[in-house]
User: What shape does this take?
Amino acid sequence: MRRVLAGASLALLAVTTLSGCGGDDEKDAKDKASVSDFCEANTEAGEAKDLDALKDAVDKIDDNLLDDMSEDEKDGFGVLKKAVDDADKEEDLAAFEKDMSDDDKKKVEAYNKYGAEACADESSDAPTEDAPSEDSSE
Assistant: This one.
């Protein structure tokens, strides 16, 4: 059952990056915080272990949608949110993905592309947990 959820949530919400925050002026810091919250919510969705966690993460994404999204990108998220909100069990997500119209697929792809691009810069600002620390003082 978890495999169905993982496959569906990863396919539906392909944006799974960790976020960081930083900036010098107040507006930049606010914008970064918004992107950070958006990216964090997408990461939570991609890592959801069950349908309830996925629903919570999708609600968090909805609360943190960025202002510069196009209509297709917003519509793509709307398609995903409706699918997750309407799902009673993980298998419902797999059925939704299978039955999605070509138009909805294009919108979801637009949302996923937007999210990947928005969070790519964010993840490059964040320290990586797996990266070894380099000590250049010898």
